[in-house]
Amino acid sequence: MVIRGYLAGHAWREYSSGKRTICGVSLPEGLKENDKLPEPIITPTTKAAVGHDEDISRADILAKGIVSEEDYTQLEKYTKALYQRGTEMAAQRGLILVDTKYEFGKADGIIYLIDEIHTPDSSRYFYAEGYQARQENNEPQKQLSKEFVRKWLIENNFQGKDGQVVPPMTGEIISSISERYIELYEQITGEQFVKDNSENLLARIEERTTTEINKLIQA
Q1: What residues pair up with 125 in beta bridges, in sequence order?
Q2: CA gap 95, 144 in Å, rounded
Q3: What distance in Å separates the CA atoms of residue 194 and residue 142, rounded to the nearest whole number?
Q4: Which of 46, 100, 138, 142 has the most other CB atoms within 10 Å of its CB?
Q5: Exposed/middle/buried for 151, CB within 10 Å: 0-12, 13-18, 19+?
C-alpha cells in the first residue's frame, strides 16, 4: 500500500507524462513536482511475475480477488493511520514524510504490517525548512530518500526493463549512497551513526542477521 502526500517520484513521472489518474485516483490539473496534494492518496502496487512492483487500482484488486473488500478497507485504514503517525514523527525531526510504502501480510485471519516501515527503502523525506520557498522558486527540494539512486540509474539508461544492463557503480557513487543513508538515519533517530570497521562485510551481515533471527525465534 503506497500512500502519497506530495506529487513526487513515480507519481510525478506519471503526471508529467500527461496522466491524470494514477491507480484509479484522479489528480487535479496544474500541479508541479513536489507540490503537496489536496489530501494523501493511496496508490497500491502488486508484485509482478518478473521485475518490479506494478501499479494497481482498488477496483482491480477487488476484481482479481487479491484481497476481500473487507480486508482492503482495513488496509486503507491502517495505511492512513500509519502515514499520519509517520508524518507526525517526521515533523518532530524537521522532516516531511512525502510518500511511503507499507507491506502487509495475513496469517490465521490477522493482517500484519511487515517490512521496511518508514526506512529510506520505502519512504521519501523532504527537509521541512525551506520547503515552501523552494516550491515557490521552482527549485529542487532538499530530500532524503533513494530517489537520487533511481535518477542516477535512469540517467545511465537503466530502468529494469528487458535487455537493460545494470551500470557499474563507482566507489564515489557507493560512498555517496552510504552517506545519504547515514544522514537520514541520524536525522530521524537523533542519534549519531557509528560505522562498523569490519573488513569482512558479508560475515558481519550474516552474523547480525542470524543473531536477530534467533531473537525472534526465542520470542
Answers
A1: 97, 144
A2: 9
A3: 24
A4: 100
A5: exposed
Q: At what angle do helices 171-189 and 147-155 cross, to 10 degrees?
A: 160
Length of the chain: 219
Domain residue ranges in the chain: 2-143
Q: What is the pLDDT of residues 140-176, one digit of tens each?
A: 998 887 777 888 888 888 887 888 888 998 888 888 8
Which three cell numbers, joined as nine digits, stand for 84? 499520519
H helix or E strand, kind and range, residue 72:
helix 69-92
SS3 state at 139: coil
Q: State the cell numbers at 73.
A: 478497507
Of 194, 157, 151, whose CA–CA distance to 173 is shortest? Answer: 151
How deeply is 188 buried, as exposed, middle or buried, from its count of CB atoms within 10 A (0-12, 13-18, 19+)? Answer: buried
The three three-digit cell numbers of residue 156, written as one number: 545511465
Written as nine digits, the cell of 87 is 508524518
| 88, amino acid identity | E
CA 80 – CA 132 distance, rounded (Å): 24
Please give the CATH superfamily to which domain 2-143 belongs: ATP-grasp fold, B domain (3.30.470.20)
Tens digit of pLDDT for each residue in 183-199?
A: 888 988 889 998 887 78
Residue type for 122, please? Answer: S
What tens digit of pLDDT does each residue of 49-107 get? 655 678 999 999 999 999 999 999 999 999 999 999 999 999 999 999 999 999 999 99
Positive or negative torsion for Cα 57, 58, 62, 67: positive
